[in-house]
Design goal:
The structure is a single chain. This protein has 57 residues and is mainly alpha-helical. The protein has a domain of 36 residues. Helices cover 77% and strands 0% of the residues. It is built from two helices and no strands. Helix 1 runs antiparallel to helix 2. The radius of gyration is 14 Å and the shape is elongated.
Length: 57
């Protein structure tokens, strides 16, 4: 089985993304949504590459 990041790290990352998106949204209307899309996409790509590097795919 692939080694996973601890759940608290995933939770902290999600909270940081949400907080940063909120801050951006206060300055630029709609900018927070674009940040969330970008940040979660990058996080998904990173996780997938890390998972494949361990020989799982």
């Amino acid at each position: 089985m692939a080694e996973r990041s601890p759940l608290w790290i995933v939770g902290v990352a999600a909270l940081l993304i949400a907080a940063i998106a909120f801050g951006i949204g206060q300055v630029f209307e709609g900018g927070g949504v674009m940040f969330v899309i970008l940040a979660t996409s990058l996080m998904t790509v990173y996780s997938h590459r890390k998972w494949r590097a361990k020989g799982n795919g």
